[in-house]
Amino acid sequence: EHGILGEEFGPVTSRNGLSWCIDPIDGTRAFIMGVPQWGVLIGLHDGAAPVLGVMDQPFTGERFIGSRLGAQVTRNGVSTQLRTRACAVLADAVLTTTHPGAFGKKSEHDAYLRVAARARMHRYGGDCYSYAMLAHGLIDLVIETALQPWDIQALIPIIQAAGGVITTWRGGPAD
User: Fold this and answer.
1) What is the DSSP string of 84-144?
2) Which residues contact 6 (CB under 8 A, 6 or more apart)?
3) pLDDT band of 9, cuts 50, 70, 90
4) Phi, psi of 173 (to 5 degrees)
């Protein structure tokens, strides 16, 4: 009855409005290099919005889960509630993006650099792990473009349940 959308295979149409969005390895380059900034992404979309998200990092043993019930990370069997950090001023923000070459257009990368110049600190690298660190309150802002649904849908409920906001560059829904 459920639909499936994933990076590695064609879509399966939902017959009940629910669809799973799956990325078996988000951050393929990090995975190949042995850098633990990749993860398995599994999201559930109810036809209106993503409602459940899981980001699992098997190497570090971390599992980030978000839903309308809240957001948590589990490490070694111990669960901790997630909460984004309060950061009202860009000059205090820690900013990240995956890679400078990952922006769809030069103008988007230039916009990132303008924001980065005003932030306290910025760093490249992280893939889906950056979004988990945002929900964990260790990063304040992630800016990326050219994402596909399987790159972001699982992360939306995690960030939102942790108190964060996730949108397109124009303020619309990111899914």
Assistant:
1) PPP---GGG-EEEES-GGGSSSHHHHHHHHHHHHHSSEEEE--HHHHHHHHHTTS-SEE--
2) 20, 21, 22, 23, 24, 150
3) confident
4) -60, 140
What are the tokens at 28? 């393929």
Query: Whole-model pTM?
Result: 0.95
Contact 2, 16 (CB under 8 A): yes
Q: Are 42 and 110 in contact (CB under 8 A)?
A: no
Residue 2 and residue 15: Cα distance in Å, rounded?
A: 6
Burial of residue 40 (number of CB atoms within 10 Å: 0-12, 13-18, 19+): middle
| Burial degree of 163 (CB within 10 A; 0-12, 13-18, 19+) | middle
Instruction: Check: CB of residue 73 under 8 Å from CB of residue 62.
Output: yes
User: What single-letter amino acid sits at 9?
Assistant: F
DSSP 2-21: -EEEESSS--B--SSS-EEE
Question: Residue 53 corresponds to which tokens in the numbers above?
Answer: 């998200």
Gap between the Cα atoms of 32 and 131, Å rounded: 20
pLDDT in tens, 70-117: 999 999 999 999 999 999 999 999 999 998 888 888 999 999 999 999
Which residue type does 35 have?
Answer: V
